[in-house]
TrEMBL record:
Keywords in alphabetical order: FAD, Flavoprotein, Oxidoreductase
Name of the protein in question: Acyl-CoA dehydrogenase family protein
Source species of the chain: Streptomyces tuirus
Family: Belongs to the acyl-CoA dehydrogenase family.
GO MF annotations in UniProt: flavin adenine dinucleotide binding; oxidoreductase activity, acting on the CH-CH group of donors
Record-annotated Acyl-CoA dehydrogenase/oxidase N-terminal domain positions: 5-120
Amino acid sequence: MSSVEEFRAEIRGWLRAQLTGEFAGLRGRGGPGREHEAFPERLAWERHMAVEGWTCVGWPKEYGGRGATLEEQVVFHEEYALADAPARVNHIGEQLLGPTLIAFGTPEQRERFLPQVVAVEELWCQGYSEPDAGSDLAGVRTRAELDGEEWVVTGQKIWTSLAHESDWCCVVARTEPGSTRHRGLSYLLVPLDQPGVEIRPISQLTGTSEFNEVFFDGARTAASHIVGAPGEGWRVAMATLGFERGVSTLGQQVGFRRELEAIIELAKRNGAARDPLIRDRVARAWTGLEIIRCNALRMLEGIAAGAPGPEASIGKIFWATWHRELGELAMDVCGAEGMPAAGAPYDLTDWQRLFLFSRSDTLYAGSNEIQRNIIAERVLGLPKEARP
């Protein structure tokens, strides 16, 4: 048995043994549009994973990880999804913030923050988008000024996932007055539990509030809590986005496949499969899922080199569009029975939730429009889009 097969057997056996007893009811809990489900229990589960050494598996051992190879990381995320284990609460800290600090942080920053991520004692969110700088991140207006030994942060962020459950936020802010676009930005680590920070959940189509507005009104963080040099925030922020499209997306596809298989079974039961147009769309969905996996495997080469390159945008735009169309297919398979809510006042079925939440897939983590520009300019070498 190869080392990868041994690793697969180890994590599969551990999940089978641990998702029992007090954790048995967590199978399938959480996920897109359902982040509110059993949050305290899922947090306890993830801290249990930390005690057992199953958080941050891909991090180097010197930073608290297992030093898993790229193949082993893929196996971990696939097996986690196949076990129907609960959605992770520490994704941003483990998959985004941690790798960013390992790549760009100071030894002091790594010593301060990484152990807390490994232990799931501090949760993180991403302070990127703003009301006037969503898809165009380079237009951020949130500013930070150095006041002695502290940065003073003023501005507004929006669509900040799980900010209401987080302890810290990685904030892209403008630290050079008069600077524009990509220049003059810095990447700051800001505590959220302090005066000058207000978090307002945003009610979504699903009836839940994963996304938030975050207002900074003179919020403070230590001068040492800047990742990279002042003005290098764009480079650091883009690396974080690259890590976001990393190995964990292989596990995401297991969930996609499970959704497609459930839609096919529903179509067989309710007769929708007799519709030739539905059958054609199901076939296209199956083919698209295979393309998603091929794109993800191709992207692993970039991950092995340190971080995905702009080619990662190909995978993002494809899976986001595919998943949105899968939600539309699910509702068409449901037919008229898919229209009423499952219960009062706004209890949604799984298919309704899939349809509604997947509308955001083509927006968050880089909208389709921006991904097309990245592909055109950085992959194909076409002229840059004209800007005012």
